[in-house]
Amino acid sequence: MAKLKAMIVGSGNIGTDLMIKLKRSDWLEPAWMIGIDPASDGLKRAKAAGLEVSAEGLQAVLAAGARPDVVFDATSAKAHVRHAKLLREAGIQAIDLTPAARGPYVIAAVNLEEHLESENVNMVTCGGQATVPIVHAVSRVVGVSYGEIVATIASKSAGPGTRQNIDEFTETTSRAIETIGGAKKGKAIIILNPADPPILMRDTIYCLMEDSGPAVYQKVEESIHQMVAHVQTYVPGYRLNRDPIFKDNMVSVSIEVEGLGDYLPVYAGNLDIMTAAAVKFSEEYAKHQSPVHK
């Protein structure tokens, strides 16, 4: 079967890392990269890799006749509001890596298969992809009245797009903790750590459980370990920092994400888990479109 043709909109850190991952895919072929700065490193690398490149923006490229099967939007929440309308009118599948949330939230480890027919899906945030699976792992065992996550990333791994979207990050991640994670109330906090040398992405997840006791603790811990193993199938550097800690009705979980180092250093696990989750969705979407899987 021919690979689906993919377009990447956004030539920054995420877009460039995404291109490198897609070049390894058996299901998709990155064919276009669209940016706004003709001198950007991402566009230069894309051109060298054989992609068609443009600094004229998505609207101009679509107007010129380009028709990809899938478009990854790695720009900003504000820009995606415009892009979503263009792609919907063109009938092109949109995979949104900004916190714009024009389509349903997708956390690759939890609800990917529910949205393979959606014309626009939102990959939430890096913190969401890393922590919502853990909240879900707890809530599928016992009710969670409150879930809180603290995502810490290296300041050097936060590009202009990430910094512009900080407010959307906290709002979107908080909603995902509730709607996908299963917590009745969710809260998200992000910290840009300026330490040098930079640290790996590290997240702490707190869940207040509606029941407690040794039997509950054992089931919750087993569920968490199963979820970590599942995420590792597409993010190899995802792991627990330590065993979960239980105290009364609260469980505390600490994880870290080491990137593959495709474009940026391995400490940028926050970028790696976003692009890996987007590739995971796109490959499952491509399989879903395949006649073999109909």
TrEMBL record:
The reply on keyword NAD is: yes
InterPro entries linked: Acetaldehyde_dehydrogenase, Acetylaldehyde_DH_C, NAD(P)-bd_dom_sf, Semialdehyde_DH_NAD-bd
Query: Where does the Semialdehyde dehydrogenase NAD-binding domain start and stop, copy by copy?
Result: 5-118
Binding residue positions for NAD(+):
S11, G12, N13, I14, S157, A158, G159, P160, G161, T162, R163, Q164, N165, N270
Check the record and name the SUPFAM superfamilies matching this protein: Glyceraldehyde-3-phosphate dehydrogenase-like, C-terminal domain (SSF55347), NAD(P)-binding Rossmann-fold domains (SSF51735)
Reaction catalyzed: acetaldehyde + NAD(+) + CoA = acetyl-CoA + NADH + H(+)
Family designation: Belongs to the acetaldehyde dehydrogenase family.
Mind telling me which NCBIfam families this protein's record contains?
ac_ald_DH_ac, PRK08300.1
The protein's name is Acetaldehyde dehydrogenase
